[in-house]
C-alpha cells in the first residue's frame, strides 16, 4: 500500500465532534488495518510518535497532511489539537513545559505516568462501534460531561492505570489492535461499560457554559481573559499556602463541598491534580462564580484574608481580577 501520492488515503475516516488528533489518527490507522508504529513510520518517517504529547505539540506536518489525505480544510484538522484553544482558553499555546489548563500525560517510554486522559463512559458507550476521545477531556477545568451530565473519570477503576488508548497493540508484534479504543490497554476492561454518577445541576450548568465558550469560533477570540480569571480562582483554592487555609475552608463550607486539603504536587497547579480533587475545587469555584465577585470579596473580608495572599503574583494576574480584588480595600 502506497501513501506517497497526493491522493486521499484509501480508507480514511473524518474527525468527529471535538475529537482529539491522536484519537482521530489512530482511527485512521485502524481503518487501514495497520499497526500504529508502521503507519506513522511510512507517512512521517522523520517524526517520533507516541513518546510526545501529540495533541499538545500540534505538529503542522501531521494535521496539515491529514487534512489533505481525508479531504477536509486545514482549519478543521487543526481544531483536533489542543493548540487550537489559543485565543479561547489561553492567550498563546505553549508546546513545552507546564501549560495552563492542559492535563499532563507524563509520557515515559510511550506510557503515561499521569492521569491526563479523562473519559466519559456514557459518551464512549453512545459512540457505538467507533468510540473516540474528546479534546474537552484533556482540560483541567473539565470534571463532568456537558453532554451526558455525568462525572468524568481519569483511570480504569479495576487496575487504576491511566487511559492509554494508543497502546492497544503493544505486546502483540504480529497482531493488529484487537480491542476498541474504549478498552483499557492494561486490563482490557471496556471503559464504555462503566457507570458514573450525575453532576449537581449548578456545576453541570457551568460545565456546559464553559464547553460552549470553547467551541471553536472567531467570535470567541480574546475570551481567554475569562478563563484567566477562572484559573486564578482555582489556583487560590488549590494553593498550599497556610495564609489561604481559612479562606479555602470558608469557601468549601459555604459551597457545601468537602474541603480539599492541599498536599504534595506543584504549588498552585490545578493541572497536577486527579479528577476527584478537581471536582471539589471546581465545585467551590462555581459557588464563587454564581455571584461574582461579591461572594469572593465577602469571604476575603469575613476571614480577614490578606490581599497580599490573594495577589501574591500580581504581575502574572489578569487585570480584571486585580481590579476586583483591590475593590475589597476600598469597598
Structural description of this entry:
The chain has 331 residues and is mostly helical. It folds into 2 domains: 21-193, no CATH class; 223-330, no CATH class. The chain has helices at 21-31, 36-43, 54-57, 60-70, 74-78, 121-126, 201-213, 224-238, 245-255, 275-290, 294-302, 307-310, 319-330; strands at residues 107-108, 111-112. Strand 1 (107-108) and strand 2 (111-112) form a beta hairpin. The radius of gyration is 21 Å and the shape is elongated. The termini are far apart.
Outline:
The chain has 331 residues and is an all-alpha fold.
Largest sheet properties: 2 strands, antiparallel
Strand order of the largest sheet: 1-2
Order of helices and strands: HHHHHEEHHHHHHHH
**SS summary, helix count:** 13
Shape: elongated
The total of beta strands comes to 2
Which structural class matches the secondary elements? mainly alpha
Strand content: under 5%
Alpha-carbon Rg, integer:
21 Å
Q: Oligomeric form of this entry? A: single chain
Poorly predicted regions are: none
Structural domain count: 2
The average pLDDT is: 89
Q: What is the percent of helical residues?
A: 25-40%
Terminus-to-terminus distance: 71 Å
Which features does this protein show?
2 domains; 13 helices
Element layout with pairings:
Layout: H1 21-31, H2 36-43, H3 54-57, H4 60-70, H5 74-78, E1 107-108, E2 111-112, H6 121-126, H7 201-213, H8 224-238, H9 245-255, H10 275-290, H11 294-302, H12 307-310, H13 319-330
Antiparallel strand pairs: 1-2
Helix pairs in contact: 8-10, 9-10, 11-13
